[in-house]
Design brief:
The structure is a homodimer.
Chain A: H1 9-16, E1 24-30, E2 37-43, E3 47-52, H2 62-74, E4 92-94, E5 97-103, H3 115-131, H4 145-159, H5 166-180, E6 187-190, E7 199-202, E8 205-209, E9 216-219, H6 220-231, H7 241-254, H8 259-285, H9 299-310
Chain lengths: 320, 320
């Protein structure tokens, strides 16, 4: 976690009194979630996650995230579900921050995903996309093309301190993507941050998706592009086409991928790689004093951008 | 935690296969324990703590700590108990570190202890002292007078960068304590670090003591002195004699405090305050790159030393 809020005894007690979840027997801060403070909360009835939303999550977006989790759970998707208090509310304040109690999802995230894990991911991603199709609320993706321009402007001046020539390469990439970004692909609610630490497995079986705090409306295929970046590269940045093929095949067994979407995958994947490069670069250049997590290396994503730029077409991802 | 070890998928699986504790359904790093990496481990049978011992805990001391927890649990004391593997061993290696699975203790530590909490603490401390009387193993307290000299020597040169005049005041205090430190008080196994975060409560009732990784053989009254420092000062460093009196009364209802011990309390309390000042000062001056916890302010303990130096006698702690 980037920050960590301590909760006082009395304020926790008062907060929990708003819920009908049993008597608390343990509440421990957990080292999960970069954006928020998370506590594992055990009562005599069940286990929960208590989340305090830190400033990187905009308070006005929280009703979207909470309603989305409620919607997905209602569709039978395995994901954390907001616990509603005695007053019906799922969102209230604790330690001067917005806070919610979320159901606990069993499972662990895998440090080294195998092709089989990628197969499970593809299926779950497609199921998530289908389940979100009739979700009524909207949230624009502020980390799409327009947002990249803002991030780039904030980082450009110091970009070359991270890697020589980085500024020019990013500017040229950004210009190309802006000129060629598609406008007409199937859209809906996307997760937008489906990295391995947001996907839980029990053994080899996927047990659920977590952390919907980047979810927004965008091209569904952009979510696939995020997953190609996040799951299908090896630690040395070589691309594992077996993982990609299994992920894509499992996805389209649930939701067909149109020819337009398939053709757009290399470009969308460049965009997704640029998005993570830019936020990592921003964090790298603006390290927070006292942060509990070291920022991640942005250069990993430069190599991924180059890979997607150099592929001949979607066949590089293992699908015809 | 000062450091945090990531455990790989396969190595965790292999490690857990050594135990008969059920199927793992969750394993989350928790933000508890400054010295070690701790995971909250849930199986389909129970909840456990998985601890990886980092370098600040000496590996050769671990059999003492593990045997002590086994001994205390055998005496019916409420404390975490090492889980023994199928081979009978409680201590093995994980991620290139010594590691153990410990039973999970329900409860939460109190951020703002009340006099009632201090009463519970005094009783539990005395019960712990009695339970440890026939523990056969020995471990010297390397953070007693001799250890303070070593710490002071490491910090002296830069001490005045933290507070002007600190070096001289510490040197004079150290010399006085060395000359007057008692040699003949009742001894046994002490906890030596019984701060509020190592004492769990369920509501107002103490549910157990944790974190025995500073435990050693020393004067039992020195443990009381640690608690006077850790529990009986308010955040503004004023001394709350009500808390002290309740703690001491509850203690001696279980184990009588001899007149010699009582007379030595102000001096032992100065020593205990100096011990925490010196380790905090050392950490302050030697901050670890990438540490997840900011070091604590050493100056708080300078004010506590001065308080104990200025008391007229043990009556200042609320006992005659």
């Amino acid at each position: 976690m980037a920050v960590y809020t301590e909760v006082g005894d009395e304020e926790l007690e008062a907060f929990l009194a708003e819920y009908d979840i049993g008597t608390v027997v343990s509440c421990k801060g957990i080292a999960e979630g970069v954006e928020n403070s998370n506590y594992l909360l055990q009562t005599d009835r069940n286990t929960f996650i208590l989340t305090l939303y830190e400033k990187r999550v905009r308070e006005e977006d929280l009703p979207f995230f909470i309603a989305l989790m409620d919607h997905l759970a209602g569709k039978g998707l395995s994901c954390p579900t907001p616990v509603h208090g005695k007053d019906g509310e799922a969102l209230r304040r604790l330690a001067d921050r917005p806070a919610a109690i979320i159901s606990f999802l069993q499972g662990m995230w895998v440090r080294k995903p195998t092709p089989q894990h990628c197969h499970g991911l593809g299926q779950a991603l497609a199921e998530f996309h289908l389940a979100g199709q009739d979700f009524a609320m909207q949230r624009p993706n502020d980390l799409s093309v327009k947002g990249w321009h803002t991030l780039f402007a904030d980082c450009a001046e110091r970009a070359d301190t991270v890697a020589p020539g980085l500024r020019d390469e990013l500017e040229s990439e950004l210009n190309y993507l802006t000129a060629h970004w598609p406008g007409d692909l199937p859209s809906g609610v996307i997760h937008a941050d489906l990295f391995p630490d947001n996907v839980f497995f029990l053994g080899k079986t996927l047990s659920g998706l977590i952390d919907f705090y980047f979810a927004c409306n965008d091209f569904l295929a952009y979510d696939i592009a995020v997953c190609l970046n996040a799951w299908c590269f090896e630690p040395d940045t070589s691309f594992n086409v077996t993982k990609a093929r299994l992920m894509l095949q499992a996805y389209r067994d649930v939701r067909p991928i149109s020819s337009n979407e398939l053709q757009a995958l290399p470009l969308l994947s460049r965009g997704a790689a640029l998005r993570f490069l830019l936020t990592r670069l921003y964090d790298w250049l603006n390290q927070i004093e006292g942060a509990l997590v070291k920022p991640k290396d942005p250069i990993e994503y430069l190599r991924k951008i180059r890979f997607h730029r150099d592929v001949g077409g979607p066949g590089a991802y293992g699908l015809d």
